[in-house]
Amino acid sequence: MNAVIFLVILGGALGFVIALAAKAFAVKTDPRVEEVEELLPQANCGACGYAGCAEFARALVEGEATPENCPVSSPDEVQQIASVLGVSLGERLEKVAVVRCGGDNRLANWNANYNGILDCRSANLVAGGTKACQYGCLGLGTCARACPFDAIEITPHGLAVVHPDVCTGCGKCVAACPRNLIELVPKDAPLHNLCNNPEKGAQSRKVCDVSCIACQKCVKSAEEGQMYMDGFIARVNYENPPSADLAEVCPTKCLQPSLLVKQSMPALEHREEAQQEEEVANA
Amino acid sequence: MPKQAKFHGGIHPPEAKVTGAFEIQTAPLLETYVVPLQQHIGAPCNVLVKKKDTVRRGQLIAEPGGFVSAGIHAPTSGTISAVTTCTGPAGASVPAVELTSDGDDTPDDTLTPMDDWQNSAPDDLKKRIADAGIVGMGGAAFPTHVKLSPPPAKPIDLLVINGVECEPCLTADHRLMLEDPDKVLTGTQIIARILGCKKVIIGIENNKPDAIELMQTKAEKLEMEVAPLKVRYPQGAEKQLIYAVSGRRVPTGGLPMDVGAVVQNVGTAAAVAEAVLDGKPLYERITTITGTPVVKPGNWRLRVGTPLEAALTLAKGVHNDPAKIIFGGPMMGLAVYSLDVPIIKSTSGILLLNSDETSEFTSGPCIGCGQCVDVCPMNIMPGTLSVQIENERFDLAEAWHAMDCIECGCCAYMCPTYRPLVHHLKRAKAEIVARRKAEQNK
Questions:
Q1: What is the topology classification, in CATH, of domain A30-92?
Q2: In this structure, what CATH number is given to the domain that contains residue B185?
Q3: How far is CA B266 from CA B204, B215, B255, B271, in A?
Q4: Which residues of A touch B335 (CB under 8 A)?
């Protein structure tokens, strides 16, 4: 019986000490940090430049960062965070990644059989794997593994394509690609030049069927300032983009709305037709 | 004869040196040469010629782009038909000069013979080596004049001449020692004079008894030592060779000069002799063309810029299409995919392999057997490192001395689950170097 009384008294006394300590040494935190953190996507992708969502929430509450720095949150979520913090929002441009290569294993020519590590960065060290183009997509999926949102798919024919609906524009893949092929572009951009080969037309044509040959047709057909030449690559001016119809003028079909929007691959169909005709002629 | 030290690890793959008894033949003049403008480790060269210029044999066509760089010289006289790009042996496209021969092979006389080299100042000799564009001919192609300029704080007291040729299949150095021992030894004397070092050891593996005997008789008169070495790959690697002949251990991350040694290949020594005695820049080298599919394997004196296709024509072509063509030896060589790839200063061999001699591996997980650790001559743990690298833990890989790897391939040769260990380590080295650079720029 004595033992029970003793323990009850001891427990009560220690509890009182702890209660006092909790009052005296309390760490003051802003309750909004937790609130904001709950609204963040919790992907911890690091695209905001902070070491995860908790750290970003702290920065938001302390006024170091603004809610639109999180590229992953939807506009609604950003609005909610802003209202919790009581700040007004700046203009926010939604971005998605695009892999600037359209030459899959059927369209790009082959150099050799690559039997090394299935990783783009490793393949890039040994002359770049299978494809003859030194600038194109290696198709070994380093970007897809880097993507925290599973937005990148490696097609069965060895080409990385970004699903724009899933992509949040965090930019992890941009850093992962050893060939610097991936670019963040406005989500509503109507078309892209899916070729990154800076060599002259004759050279790039040798290695791939869908290369940009610098014919400048698109630049001439578009309105002033919508397209421009960067060396031997035509580039879309994303601030003033041309309409998607411009893709029609491209002779090699490297100017594309995006591989996923346009499910068929015109260049491939063209090649298959030519092959069939050849077979017929041979027969 | 000092007692031979045995370096840790190493393997003994089949030697397959079938061309050891074949004399060096000189290749006939070709119509066109494609000379890449980056044939060495270091800064790229700046091209000095333009289209339609006429050049003479040995004329400088690209000047070094820095101290760690080596000039490129015209392999023959003729007209520059294009300043273009070509596929280099490493697979990437490199700037190149296309030279159409005029058939006369008129020599250029900018570099005059230095007959009185015994009394020339070491700096003049060093300048001549730089002017002649000489690089390490063993395969790494590091500019020789840089290697011969150690900082004053690190005196050199040992010159090791590398006649080991531990790579299977290759016999270029072997033939050079047999056919031109005097040139090799004169070059060695010149290098020793530049470094101001008295002790010279020539390391030769004892699968070349004829070369050992010949070099021994010749070297005795010059007070040099020939060390016959038990056959072991990679004995021709600098650090392993220094240990084998002198017992000195190069510290991790260090260079041979840290233990007062410099290693030069026999081919480099011969090139130095030619540059000093004849005023001849480095525009040709001895290359072994070998492999089962080759009709007539042999050793050839090829000019830099000879396209692979022309080189194979010299060997009377192939019996059947090879599965793999390798520039260099089977252990450390680089596979090429185009017949247009030109011979460069460091191409010690062209090796063709049949499909039954190469195989496509499917690699498995590391089973921790430790065979790679047993054979690693640099005493690192390739298996453990490969797992770290697969998981992108380059910080760990650095701490576990991934940078010590010399990419000799012993580990991958032994691995029972066919792991591409060298490829993993190459990746780690590239990544660690990039990280260090990024940190420096911060």
A1: 3-methyladenine DNA Glycosylase II; Chain A, domain 3 (1.10.15)
A2: 3.40.50.11540
A3: 10, 11, 20, 9
A4: 112
> What DSSP state is assigned to residue A135?
S
> CB B424 to CB A134 under 8 A?
no
Q: Which residues pair with B59 in a beta bridge?
A: none
Packing angle of the helix pair A75-85, A53-61 (nearest 10 deg):
50
B427: chain A residues, CB-CB within 8 Å? 117, 119, 121-122, 125
Chain A environment of B333 (Cβ under 8 Å): none
Nearest to A112 among B93, B337, B430 (CB): B337
- DSSP for A202-256 reads HHHHHHBTT------HHHHHSPTTTEEEETTEEEE-TTSPPPGGGGGG-SSS-EE
Decide if B424 contacts B385 (C-beta within 8 A). yes
**Which domain range does residue B430 map to?**
371-440
Structure tokens belonging to residue A149:
């949102």
Is any Cβ of chain B less than 8 angstroms from the Cβ of A113?
yes
Q: State the average pLDDT over residues B114-122.
A: 89
Name chain A contacts of B360, Cβ cutoff 8 Å.
113, 115
Q: Which whole-number Å values give the CA distances from A195 to A152, A161, B180, B185, in the listed order? A: 18, 13, 53, 55
Q: In this structure, is residue B75 part of a structural domain?
A: yes
The beta-carbon neighbor of A127 closest among B92, B420, B426 is: B92
Do B263 and B178 fall within a single domain?
Answer: yes
Identify the closest residue of chain B to A122 by CA–CA distance: B427
Nearest Cα residue to A180 out of A196, A167, A161, A159: A196
The CA distance from A81 to A49, in Å, is: 18
Q: Tell me which fold the domain A95-282 belongs to.
A: Alpha-Beta Plaits (3.30.70)
**B92 in A contact zone (CB under 8 Å):** yes
**Is the pTM here over 0.80, yes or no?**
yes
Q: Does the CB of B248 have a partner CB in chain A at under 8 Å?
A: no
DSSP H helices, B94-208, are 122-131, 144-147, 172-179, 181-195
Per-block mean pLDDT, blocks of 10 residues, chain A (283 long): 94 96 86 86 84 88 83 83 79 82 86 86 84 89 90 87 86 90 88 89 86 90 88 89 86 79 54 73 75
**Closest-CA distance of chain B to residue A210, Å:** 20
